[in-house]
């Protein structure tokens, strides 16, 4: 046969990650596979891709999606073994995805009925196993449906039914398949999935163990605590004579942070305006443009400090010129040498009037070796929608470099920072400037009391303050927060302001 003749018999099966253009096909496939159950919605699918794209896999045949599976990573020890599907998947949004977790949790596997003899399900399970091995995860856990049980519910208990399936005396389309793929039965879960009538709301808790698992290799092994230490720098604004003098001051603070084995050193907003004290430009708008010429020096300095001292640095903010416009930009200098930027979104009247600052248009969440973080410059923390969105995208730490000229301005930042910590059950770290720059217009006085704020509950400091500087004086504080404790608190404590939001009657959406 010729190549053209052969090609008419070829089928192209591709196993790949799900992308956004697949969403409509995924929802259509769910409606076909599970006609009596609520399918994913677009926001849930978008959340899956934001938080754990590697765990969302599909099978494509000649351009059509004929199967898919969805997963997240958890520390299963954080959950009760009698958990519900809604709890373990965060109502389908997987905002509880924990990159430091030990277990891959399988949310769903589905195969189009017309293609169920092509081993599509097996291919998806093999892809999951490869993912668990690649990420060095301890096991895969699933809450498996037992859809055949309704035919036997009047004759035997769910556990008896599962045992009969395991002995191959009864065929169950899901449990039999999982057993053949190396999963072992741990126990029966009650009230797992409320709309699974065929399973009578029961499920089989099943586990596949990764025999290649190596503790402490390329990931953080599960432990009872995951402390993150912050060095907050309440920076003194005073006259200097050169960039080298500025660099010496900054290196001193980073050195201190490193000596105390801090994970983050946090500088305030606008602290590079100290450079204006020797630039001799009285016009505020022209001074800012002169300041922006130091951008390369600033980035080179802090990138080198982060690597040399092995500290992630939230480098306050610096004014950057792009396309003849000035922006107030926060920088994250990771200790591995990589750099990120967050543009200030909400520009104050003073910034607009004196310096002609423009607002950014993109809200970022950054990965670090201590988890996902967000940076919100000063007044950005006063808009609760911003913190809620980044928390939904997995941020557990929000850094707030700020610059306030008087006490009431400072208190707006502090009170809003504490509110965001309570509302979203996150850690909020603020760092402000103090002192005076008598030679610089509109930066002449400063007021701050920097701090590290937590949710207010039994698991944390009584007043929700992990550490706080003395008011309005040059200072450095160290504070440590247990992020594993924060994870557990988000799931199991009495007040669950983040998990128990009424997303059935309200929601937030960011315009990209």
TrEMBL record:
A molecular function GO annotation: acyltransferase activity, transferring groups other than amino-acyl groups
Keywords annotated in UniProt: Transferase
Residue ranges of every copy of the CN hydrolase domain listed in the record: 228-483
Pfam (any one): CN_hydrolase
Keyword Transferase recorded: yes
All copies of domain N-acetyltransferase, residue ranges: 13-212
Superkingdom to which the source organism belongs: Bacteria
Keyword Methyltransferase on entry: no
InterPro entries: Acyl_CoA_acyltransferase, C-N_Hydrolase, C-N_Hydrolase_sf, GNAT_dom
Identification of the protein by name: GNAT family N-acetyltransferase
Natural source organism: Paenibacillus psychroresistens
């Amino acid at each position: 046969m010729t190549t053209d003749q052969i090609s008419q018999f070829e089928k192209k099966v591709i196993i790949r990650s799900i992308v956004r253009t697949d969403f409509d096909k995924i929802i259509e496939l769910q409606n076909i596979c599970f006609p009596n159950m609520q399918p994913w919605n677009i926001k849930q699918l978008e959340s899956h891709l934001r938080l754990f794209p590697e765990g969302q896999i599909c099978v494509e045949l000649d351009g059509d999606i004929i199967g898919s599976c969805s997963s997240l990573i958890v520390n299963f020890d954080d959950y009760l073994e009698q958990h519900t599907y809604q709890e373990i998947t965060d109502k389908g949004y997987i905002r509880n995805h924990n990159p430091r977790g030990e277990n891959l949790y399988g949310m769903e596997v589905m195969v189009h009925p017309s293609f169920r003899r092509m081993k599509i399900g097996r291919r998806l399970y093999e892809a999951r196993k490869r993912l668990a091995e690649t990420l060095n995860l301890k096991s895969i856990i699933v809450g498996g449906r037992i859809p055949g049980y309704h035919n036997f519910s009047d004759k035997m208990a769910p556990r008896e039914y599962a045992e009969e399936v395991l002995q191959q005396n009864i065929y169950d389309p899901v449990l039999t398949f999982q057993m053949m793929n190396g999963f072992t039965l741990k126990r029966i879960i009650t009230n797992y999935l409320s709309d699974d009538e065929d399973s009578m709301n029961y499920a089989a808790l099943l586990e596949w163990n990764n025999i290649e698992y190596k503790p402490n290799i390329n990931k953080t092994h599960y432990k009872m605590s995951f402390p993150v230490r912050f060095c907050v720098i309440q920076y003194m604004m005073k006259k200097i004579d050169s960039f080298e003098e500025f660099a010496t001051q900054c290196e001193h603070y980073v050195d201190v942070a490193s000596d105390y084995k801090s994970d983050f050193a946090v500088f305030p907003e606008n602290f590079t305006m100290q450079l204006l004290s020797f630039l001799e430009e009285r016009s505020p708008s022209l001074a800012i443009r002169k300041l922006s010429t130091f951008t390369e020096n600033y980035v080179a300095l802090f990138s080198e400090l982060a690597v040399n001292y092995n500290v992630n640095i939230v480098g306050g903010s610096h004014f950057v010129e792009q396309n003849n416009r000035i922006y107030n930009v926060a920088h994250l200098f990771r200790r591995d040498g990589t750099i990120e930027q967050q543009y200030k979104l909400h520009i104050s009247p003073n910034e607009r009037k004196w310096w002609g600052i423009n607002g950014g248009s993109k809200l970022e969440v950054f990965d670090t070796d201590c988890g996902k973080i967000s940076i919100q410059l000063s007044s950005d923390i006063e808009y609760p929608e911003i913190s809620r969105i980044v928390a939904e995208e997995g941020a557990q730490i929000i850094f707030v470099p700020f610059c306030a000229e008087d006490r009431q301005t400072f208190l707006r930042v502090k009170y809003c920072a504490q509110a965001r910590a309570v509302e979203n059950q996150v850690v909020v770290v603020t760092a402000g400037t103090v002192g005076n720059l008598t030679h610089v217009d509109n930066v002449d006085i400063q007021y701050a009391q920097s701090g590290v704020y937590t949710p207010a509950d039994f698991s944390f400091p009584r007043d929700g303050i992990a550490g706080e500087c003395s008011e309005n004086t040059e200072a450095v504080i160290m504070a440590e927060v247990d992020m594993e404790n924060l994870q557990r608190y988000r799931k199991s404590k009495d007040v669950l302001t983040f998990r128990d939001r009424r997303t059935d009657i309200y929601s937030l959406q960011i315009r990209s």
